[in-house]
Amino acid sequence: MLSTAQLREMLAMLPPDVDAVGAVDDSPVERAELSAILHAVLSDTMRRSIIEAPLGHCRPSWASAIEAADTALADCGAPASEQAQFDANWLGQRIGMLAAREAPAAARALLTAASHAVEAAGVLLAIARDPSATAARDSWPTAINDLAYAFHLANDELGDLTQPIR
User: Fold this and answer.
1) I want to staple 73 with a disulfide (CB 3.0 to 4.6 A). Which of 24, 78, 108, 113 is the partner?
2) pLDDT tens for each residue of 76-130
């Protein structure tokens, strides 16, 4: 794991101003904030690299990026399934933040549906590590409920959008 000093050193070379993130003697909160800033910058760079790839190169760019990430995780000794679950949880938090912002009701409902679908994905990733464990069996209802709720929200919005106005 990188230290706060290492994170600050990397971020010093990048555009975001991290001086606003207060130094608190290498606290876990500060390290999480700095890691999130670095993650956002690197994620944006990866996104742009993939979507701005020449025609026909998007899929190979995705595949190469995923392979590189998987190799990096293995080199760090990080379990890929746990990282995938974390990434799903992170995405769910990001979508939840978007849903909480001012947006039209339809957009909020769809973002809430997406958030629940991603939460279900996180639970399913945890279950997949040991499907026969007691904790896994107890988690199935949560995943199914989140998926059902996401489906109903999305389906209701589709119905509202396709209903003729009378």
Assistant:
1) 78
2) 999 999 999 999 999 999 998 888 887 788 889 999 999 999 999 999 999 999 9
Domain boundary among 20, 43, 77: 77
> Which residues have CB under 8 Å from 107's CB, separation 6+?
none
| Domain-ending residue, one of 37, 58, 77 | 77
The two three-digit tokens of residue 45, written as one number = 């760079």
Q: Please check whether residue 91 is in contact with residue 125, taking contact to mean a CB–CB distance below 8 angstroms.
A: no
Q: Say what the pTM is.
A: 0.81
3-state SS of the chain? Answer: CCCHHHHHHHHCCCCCCCCCCCCCCCCHHHHHHHHHHHHHHHHHHHHHHHHCCCCCCHHHHHHHHHHHHHHHHHHHCCCHHHHHHHHHHHHHHHHHHHHHCCCCHHHHHHHHHHHHHHHHHHHHHHHHHCCCCHHHHHHHHHHHHHHHHHHHHHHHHHHHHHCCCC
Pair 36, 110 in one domain: no
H helices of 52-76, in order, are 58-76
d(CA 20, CA 17): 7
